[in-house]
Every structure is written in structure tokens, then in C-alpha cells.
């Protein structure tokens, strides 16, 4: 486990590193370029829900994570404590407790986490009955030799680790939204399976258009990434996945390289939006590799979106302009503390969360394509 550093130690570490660099320049001539700074300004970024939900408390996800990181707590534990606020908030229907359920009305959750300095990871997929899948993913990382546990096995692991298992993670809101979707998608149980699947997707999109569910909650997710002053960098992604999914469907969120990727020497990247599109290109891995080659986080994210656009050729996934008809966003943070949030499309509501020493804010996502994903 990474050593905890106090605020004072952070300052000392930075000062010592600066002094050493100056000394080596004087005594030994030109030192090689230092690509990895020894001290960076701490920052936490996340999808927009990381700076809107408080679950009745006083802090948002990014605020809590930033406070804990600057108090010297482990970066990953700080980020997970942040996303727990959103997972536990019954009013957030994208994540954890009260996340929108699958087609059978059952809430199935996915999460993964990566520890940059320790080079370890853990994930769960399709887990039922635990409000905070990110904590189970962390337990997989800490207590097993594996990276991913799924379904009943993930739940039984959680039970054995002391997590409370609940019969139903629906809230009244998520249950009502599921009932409404069921009514629209399958009114008489007479559609054939193919038509029913299409009707289900269309009914979901129509509910987005009518404002019954937020667009980002259709594939609702939170990704949160952070860096401490000593350069420790970690990330976590947690989700209830695609609303009304086929039971057992798992998207990008718990898959390393897709919903999240962290290389402790380079940076972190994570995703929200249409998981299937991200999985095809393992975009978080691509983004970290782009940053390894020197790309700025924003350019790395745009490259991933470019690849997704190129890989989207099926007619059903294209709008009238021949462009992707879905949303997908990436959040990137590099080892220097530089960060960005990009989206396939963005309007004035498309924001991501940032917390620095100046406080927390919602910042516009940079769009890759103009206009909207849909035609109307
Ligand atoms: N990005 C979340 C999902 O597709 O499940």
C-alpha cells in the first residue's frame, strides 16, 4: 500500500526534489529532462454527477476525494470514498443504490478500480444486492489474486468479505421508471424478440427525450480519477450500466482498459456513455497510451473518439448525418496534473467535475462532433 504523506511531507518532498534538480544542474551540468515532476498540484476529476450529488451531506464526490487526498489518504481510497456518495444517493439513478435496473427490474452493478503506484486492479460485474460495488472491486483488488469477479460469485465474495447483501436495490424512483419503460416497450407481450429489443431501445431513448431520465443515466456511470502532490494517481469507475439491459449484460465500466485504465507512471482515463462503443476500441487504454506518447489529455481523448466514430458503421448506430447516434465521454488526467473531459457531442448541460485547491466546479466537456447525437 502506498505510504500516507502528511501535507507537510508533501511540501518537503516537493522542495527536496526541486533542490535536488537545481543541485544536479549546477554540479553535473545539464540534467536529463525530467518528464515526471516530483510534485504536482493535486486534482480530482469526474463525470458531472461527481459534483452535483451529496446524498444529504455537505460534500460532493470530487470534494471529498480531494480533501482526503490532500489530507494524505491513499488516492484510490479517497476516490472510492467520493464515488460512494453517488452510489449511496437514492436520487442518482445512474449508479449503485437506486441505479436503473435491467429488463427484469433487477439492479445489477459494475465497477472497477486501479491503483497506479501499486499497479493493481480489481473489478466486479453484474453484482446484485450491494449498494457500493466500487468497495467490492477494491476488496477484489486487495484480497484476491484476480482482477474481475462476476454475478453470483461476486455477490458471494462480497458476502464473505462482510458486505451487507440486500434483496433489492431499487428505489421507488428506479422501480417507477422501470415500470414506465416496461409499459412502453412490451405492452402486450406480443412483439417478437427482435422487435421487442428495438422497441425497448427506442422506448428508452424516448424517455430521455421526454426528460423522464437524463441522457447520461441511460448508460449512467461515474468515473473519478485523482492525483496527489507526490504524483500517486488512481481511478475508479462504477455504474448500474445500461438502463433496462438484458440481464447479465456487462458494459465497459468493469473492464480494465475500457471503463478505466491507469498507469501510475503516465496517467488515468475513464469513460461514461455507450459501453459497447468503448469496449470495441478499449479507449481508456488507448488514451493512456496516447498520453505515454506525449499527447495532451484532451488530444488523447479526441483520438479515442475519432476511433469510435470510425468504428461505428452499423446503420442502427448512425443518425441521419451518418454520425454516431449515441453519447460517449472520456475523462483524462496525466502525471503532470493536466486533465480534460471530452464527449462525442456536448451541449450547454454537458459538464464534468473538477476539484483543485481553488475548489470544485463543473466544467464544459469538449465536443468531438458538432450538433446532437439524435436527428430531431
Ligand atoms: N458506460 C456504462 C455502460 O455502458 O454500462
Account of the protein in words:
With 376 residues, the chain is α+β, with helices and mostly antiparallel strands. The protein folds into two domains: 1-39; 43-173 and 209-367, 4-Layer Sandwich (Glutamine Phosphoribosylpyrophosphate, subunit 1, domain 1), CATH 3.60.20.30. The chain contains eleven helices and 13 strands. It has helices at residues 7-28, 61-70, 75-88, 133-143, 151-160, 172-185, 193-209, 215-218, 275-281, 283-292, 297-311; strands spanning 43-47, 109-115, 120-127, 148-150, 221-227, 233-239, 260-263, 267-273, 328-334, 339-343, 351-356, 359-364, 366-367. The strands form two sheets. An eight-stranded mixed sheet has the order 4-3-2-6-5-1-11-12. Strands 7-8-9-10-13 form a five-stranded mixed sheet, covered by helices on one side. Helix 3 (75-88) runs antiparallel to helix 4 (133-143), helix 6 packs across helix 7 (193-209) and helix 9 crosses helix 11 (297-311). It is globular, with a radius of gyration of 21 Å. Mean pLDDT is 88; it is low at 1-36. The site of glycine (GLY) has 12 residues, from strand 8. The site of glycine has 12 residues, from strand 8.
Ligand species: glycine
Name of the level-1 CATH class of the largest domain: Alpha Beta
- Please describe the biggest sheet, giving its number of strands, its sense, and whether it closes into a barrel: 8 strands, mixed
Class by alpha and beta content: alpha+beta
Strand order of the largest sheet: 4-3-2-6-5-1-11-12
Instruction: Tell me the CATH topology of the largest domain.
Output: Glutamine Phosphoribosylpyrophosphate, subunit 1, domain 1
The number of domains is 2
Element order: H for helix, E for strand: HEHHEEHEHHHHEEEEHHHEEEEE
CATH architecture of the largest domain: 4-Layer Sandwich
User: Total number of β-strand segments?
Assistant: 13
Task: Compute the average pLDDT.
Answer: 88
Query: What proportion of the residues is helical, as a percent range?
Result: 25-40%
Strand residue content: 15-25%
Please identify which CATH superfamily of the largest domain we are dealing with. (Glycosyl)asparaginase
Number of helices, where a helix is a run of at least 4 consecutive DSSP H or I residues? 11
Question: Stretches where pLDDT falls below 50 for ≥5 residues?
Answer: 1-36
Amino acid at each position: 500500500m502506498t505510504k500516507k504523506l502528511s501535507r507537510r511531507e508533501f511540501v518537503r518532498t516537493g522542495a527536496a526534489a526541486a533542490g535536488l534538480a537545481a543541485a544536479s544542474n549546477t554540479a553535473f551540468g545539464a540534467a536529463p529532462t525530467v518528464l515526471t515532476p516530483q510534485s504536482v498540484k493535486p486534482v480530482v476529476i469526474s463525470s458531472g454527477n461527481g459534483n452535483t450529488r451529496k446524498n444529504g451531506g455537505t460534500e460532493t464526490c470530487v470534494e471529498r476525494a480531494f480533501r482526503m487526498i490532500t489530507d494524505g489518504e491513499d488516492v484510490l481510497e479517497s476516490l472510492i470514498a467520493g464515488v460512494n456518495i453517488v452510489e449511496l444517493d437514492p436520487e442518482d439513478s445512474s449508479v449503485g443504490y437506486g441505479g436503473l435496473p435491467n429488463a427484469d427490474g433487477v439492479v445489477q452493478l459494475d465497477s472497477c478500480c486501479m491503483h497506479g503506484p501499486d499497479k493493481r486492479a480489481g473489478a466486479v460485474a453484474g453484482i446484485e444486492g450491494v449498494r457500493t460495488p466500487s468497495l467490492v472491486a477494491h476488496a477484489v483488488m486487495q484480497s484476491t489474486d484476480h482482477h474481475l469477479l462476476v454475478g453470483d460469485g461476486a455477490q458471494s465474495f462480497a458476502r464473505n468479505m462482510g458486505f451487507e447483501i440486500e434483496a433489492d436495490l431499487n428505489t421507488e424512483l428506479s422501480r417507477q421508471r422501470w415500470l414506465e419503460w416496461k409499459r412502453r416497450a412490451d405492452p402486450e407481450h406480443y412483439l417478437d424478440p427482435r422487435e421487442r429489443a428495438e422497441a425497448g431501445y427506442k422506448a428508452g431513448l424516448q424517455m430521455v427525450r421526454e426528460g423522464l431520465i437524463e441522457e447520461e443515466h441511460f448508460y449512467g456511470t461515474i468515473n473519478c480519477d485523482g492525483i496527489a502532490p507526490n504524483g500517486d494517481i488512481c481511478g475508479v469507475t462504477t455504474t448500474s450500466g445500461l438502463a433496462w439491459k438484458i440481464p447479465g449484460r456487462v458494459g465497459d465500466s468493469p473492464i480494465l482498459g475500457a471503463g478505466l485504465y491507469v498507469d501510475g507512471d503516465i496517467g488515468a482515463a475513464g469513460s461514461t456513455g455507450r459501453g459497447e462503443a468503448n469496449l470495441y476500441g478499449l479507449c481508456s487504454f488507448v488514451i493512456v497510451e496516447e498520453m505515454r506518447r506525449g499527447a495532451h489529455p484532451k488530444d488523447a481523448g479526441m483520438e479515442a473518439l475519432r476511433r469510435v466514430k470510425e468504428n461505428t458503421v452499423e446503420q442502427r448506430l448512425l443518425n441521419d448525418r451518418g454520425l454516431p447516434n449515441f453519447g460517449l465521454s472520456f475523462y483524462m488526467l496525466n502525471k503532470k496534473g493536466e486533465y480534460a473531459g471530452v464527449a462525442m457531442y456536448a451541449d450547454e448541460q454537458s459538464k464534468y467535475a473538477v476539484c483543485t485547491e481553488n475548489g470544485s466546479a463543473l466544467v464544459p466537456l469538449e465536443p468531438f462532433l458538432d450538433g446532437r447525437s439524435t436527428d430531431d
